[in-house]
Amino acid sequence: MIQAIPKTVTFDEFIAWYPEGSGCHYELHNGEIVEMPKPTGKHSRVAGFITVKAGIEIERLKLPYFIPKECVIKSIRDESGYEPDVIVLDERTIADSPRWEKESIITQGSSVRLVVEVVSTNWSDDYALKLEEYEALGISEYWIIDYLGLGGRRFIGNPKQPTLSIYQLVEGEYQVSQFRENQPIKSPTFPEFNLTASEIFQAGQRIN
Questions:
Q1: Which of 141, 107, 146 is nearest to 125 (CA)?
Q2: What are the angstrom distances between the C-alpha of 173 and each of 8, 107, 113?
Q3: I need a surface site. Which of 34, 42, 92, 124 has the fewest CB within 10 A?
């Protein structure tokens, strides 16, 4: 049985409440529990494509990183918690997040090498809310994969088109590089990625 959603809760109350095996995903936004939109098939395949490609690079280069199946990033600003579509964690600094081993909770940006969000209908969360949170936490690299060009024009330009925004933390603030169509992407975490923006956007349509 799925528990009723409380009106306002603390982060710890949210973690205790979170229903396992419900098939739904939830986040906590400033004390309010928010049910995430169910991902489409293409959304899931784009996220899976990045997971596979990052995993290959980690293995090929013997990098001290790993990709968990799921986790929650705890805000340092308020009662919020976020479940990213893809996250790459650093084996060397994961101990900085003391709640990781027992609860899969990330509390320190130093534990994270890369966070990826694949844009859905709630695109403003990715471009505004989560961007500010990840920047405040000190997460060094953040991708927003807007494969349908849903984001506001102030974020992806006019006319709107599919855009990959890669935010890199520089002196405590994010600086963005954007990639479209057949432009090769440039990732600080994975500088040897041999991928174009279009290959990522089209990943959900591939059958091989």
A1: 146
A2: 30, 19, 16
A3: 92
What is the CATH number that goes with domain 11-205?
3.90.1570.10
CA angle 162, 125, 43 (to 5 degrees): 45
How much is the pTM? Answer: 0.93
What are the residue boundaries of the structural domains of the chain, listed by start?
11-205
Tokens of 107: 């509390």
Please give the sequence-ordered ranges of beta strands (E in DSSP) within the chain, or none if there are none. Answer: 26-29, 32-35, 65-66, 72-74, 81-82, 86-90, 105-106, 112-118, 141-146, 163-170, 173-179
pLDDT (tens digit, 0 to 9) for every residue of the chain, 208 residues total? 445 666 789 999 999 999 877 778 899 999 999 998 887 889 999 999 999 999 999 999 999 999 999 899 999 999 999 999 999 999 999 999 999 999 999 999 999 999 999 998 889 999 999 999 999 999 999 999 999 999 999 999 999 999 999 999 999 999 999 999 999 999 999 999 999 999 999 986 654 4
